[in-house]
Amino acid sequence: MQVQVRLFATLRQGRFKRQSLELPEGDSVADLLKSLDIPKEDVGMLLLNGRDAALEAPLTTEAVVSIFPALGGG
Amino acid sequence: MAGYCGNILRINLTTRTVDTQPLDMALARKFVGGRGLGTSYFQKEVDPNVDALGPDNKMFFTTGPLTGTTAPTSGRYMVVTKSPLSGTIASSNSGGFWAAELKRAGFDMIIVEGRADRPCSISIRNSEVHIEDAETCWGKTVTETTDALLEAFGDPKARVLAIGPAGEKQSMIAAIMNDRYRAAGRSGVGAVMGSKNLKAIVVRGTGKVDSGQPDQTKEVLARMRKKIAEHDVTGKGLPAYGTAVLVNVINEHGVYPTKNFQQAYFETADKVSGETLAEEYLVKNVACYACPITCGRRCVVDGQEGEGPEYETLWCYSASCGVDDLPSVIRANNLCNDYGLDTISAGATIACAMELFEKGFIKPDEIDGPPLKFGSGEAIVEWTRKMGCHEGFGAELAQGSARLAAKYGAPELSMSSKKLELPAYDPRGIQGHGLQYATSNRGGCHVRGYMIAPEILGIPEKLDPLSLEGKATWTKIFQDLTAVIDSLGLCLFTSFALGAEDYRDMYSAITGADITTEDLLKTGERIWNLERVFNLNAGVDPGEDKLPKRLLEEPIPEGPSKGQVHRLGELLPQYYQERGWSAEGRPTEAKLAELALA
Questions:
Q1: Sequence ranges of the domains in chain A
Q2: Which residue of A has its CA nearest to B236?
Q3: Is the peptide bond before B460 cis (omega within 30 degrees of 0)?
Q4: SS in 3 state form for B444-466?
Q5: CB within 8 A of B515, min separation 6: which ones?
Q6: Which CATH number fits domain B7-204: 3.60.9.10, 1.10.10.10, 3.30.499.10, 1.10.8.420?
Q7: Cross-chain residue pair A45–B237, CB shorter than 8 Å
Q8: Which member of A12, A51, A72 has the closest CB to residue B238?
Q9: A71 and B246 in contact by Cβ < 8 A?
Q10: What residues in A contact B496, CB-CB < 8 Å?
Q11: Per the CB < 8 Å rule, is A72 touching B242?
Q12: For an interface test with B, which of A4, A5, A8 has the most B Cβ atoms less than 10 Å from its Cβ?
């Protein structure tokens, strides 16, 4: 399945800004992190189609995953 | 009491008199300092129905007991006055170094009264205080004024607070600037200064601010610095990307107001994000007084160095105006700083004008500048310049979006609350934050109770932004705690890493005040209620606790928060109840007695 992945801030370093990735059916968000070599503890915010998602959330075709380190401001 | 200087400076510009008076320590204990102390003096001395731009309105430049001490981020001050924009109490906060210098000169607060018959400035060299002619500075930008006054003062270590041409022209959205780039931005406080013919306050202090008993403060402040350094937001995110890092965060949640809140997702946001700013325009980080966070951005465009843009500024000039041209956004930000305009209100007013223009309310032949079209980088820069110097149609824009939209018979197109333009978060997808916009005592504002922290960032814990559950309670706690932080003289960003207990520890260690965390929060509640009472007496009734119709009735059309509207009608009664107010939103006699305000 095709999944759109968007990385932000420090997570872009050595990786990419946004990419469409081909993943095996049934993969979860945690599987995606593993394939990107992003340690769980580096993730501050995880969105699946713009809504907060758990690591075990299953991915679906055309899903948009946005991954941030811990951030704030305002 | 350590932390306080014990002196206030009362300056009457009509009579050109300067008076040093003892600080009312009973009020200081009851209201801490800064925002609380300024509000308590203001409420005692100023008729709520005063003309905000008349000589009887007063300005209170107030520091907190921690301002200028060794506490981290202790460079803050407040300007408390009546807002000409909203008719509410205005308490506008700024950082930089000016406030710490004022404390070193020996003053906790400056009260400015009356109106000078010609442009003037105030010069403070420790206890030596003069009112000086400033006619040669009138019409000059903030940078030009700062340079000229520093040279005249003869000490490069002096700190300058000034208004630009926007304040002189009494623009309703004029800011007060200090240290060139830091702004007491909101509520039109710059116009009040302009109405008094007061161009600037220059201060140099060589004294020492008493930071309390070293044995007690050392351990507490070291603990606070450690927490700030180790927290992901204050130790990593803000230093690396500044506040602008929020652009992509808020956009990905689908709550990034676009084209005057007609949409909530900006397709090309990454071109005008904190990441892009850091990659392409950032020269270095800058810090305010005693700040370990260093979120300030020194950026260069067209060979001109400036500070910012901050997140809110990036938003209002980019997504809100549909512009993804970052250099134009930086130019507009620099113009705001130089002309002394509130960037949020300035950008949001241009966005409102763009919608009015595109919908045919503003006719092309009415305007003497570039077409007000969404997406035009040229328009945001040129109209900011024209607003700053009140040139042509720019003078209309300089009155803010509420007056502009009302003039064209479309008040619903002003995205404001109590006439103050809403900042960079669409409340339709963040219910608690919308409640905070509607109930803020100075109008549509994000820094009176930053509900983005729990609802989006998960600090101190994650709340569902779409749920109403518990939001009235959280909003009240955030509002009360913010009033405390604003009164201590610290930066609100510390609250990402610190909790109420930590603020109590710092306040107690430095001043020696024997106070519980609960009582400190009660002080925040007292300040909030006193502001509310002022507004009610000024004729700003609870019916003004509202949001623009669009946010209540038009669902977000696209993106991750598609279909959402704000449910203020359900939240407001809960909030009034949480505050212990009447069902109509008025503090009850019992509540005021409980807070020792009766």
A1: 2-68
A2: A71
A3: yes
A4: CCCCCCCCHHHHHHCCCCCCCCC
A5: B504, B507, B508
A6: 3.60.9.10
A7: no
A8: A72
A9: yes
A10: 72
A11: no
A12: A8
Q: How many CB atoms lie within 10 A of CB B302?
A: 8
- Indicate the fold that domain B244-420 takes in CATH: 1.10.569
- ipTM of this predicted structure: 0.96
* Distance in angstroms (rounded) separating the CA atoms of residues B443 and B422: 8
Q: Is B239 on the interface with A (CB under 8 A)?
A: no
Phi, psi of B197 (to 5 degrees): 60, 30
Do the Cβ atoms of A50 and B560 come within 8 Å? yes
Distance CA B528, CA A30 (A): 44
B585 touches chain A (CB under 8 A): no
What does the block give as tokens for B363?
């006719």
**CATH 3.10.20.30 correct for A2-68:** yes
B161 close to B177: Cβ distance less than 8 angstroms: yes
What gap in Å lies between CA B225 and CA B218, rounded to an integer?
11
Q: For the domain with range B427-496+514-594, which CATH number is right: 1.20.1530.20, 1.10.599.10, 3.30.420.40, 3.50.30.80?
A: 1.10.599.10
Q: Return the structure tokens found at B345.
A: 């209100």
Instruction: Respond yes or no on whether the N-terminal peptide bond of residue B309 is cis (omega within 30° of 0).
Output: yes
List chain B pLDDT tens, one digit each, 598 residues. Answer: 999 999 999 999 999 999 999 999 999 999 999 999 999 999 999 999 999 999 999 999 999 999 999 999 999 999 999 999 999 999 999 999 999 999 999 999 999 999 999 999 999 999 999 999 999 999 999 999 999 999 999 999 999 999 999 999 999 999 999 999 999 999 999 999 999 999 999 999 999 999 888 888 999 999 999 999 999 899 988 998 899 999 999 999 999 999 999 999 999 999 999 999 999 999 999 999 999 999 999 999 999 889 999 999 999 999 999 999 999 999 999 999 999 999 999 999 999 999 999 999 999 999 999 999 999 999 999 999 999 999 999 999 999 999 999 999 999 999 999 999 999 999 999 999 999 999 999 999 999 999 999 999 999 999 999 999 999 999 999 999 999 999 999 999 999 999 999 999 999 999 999 999 999 999 999 999 999 999 999 999 999 999 999 999 999 999 999 999 999 999 999 999 999 999 999 999 999 999 999 8
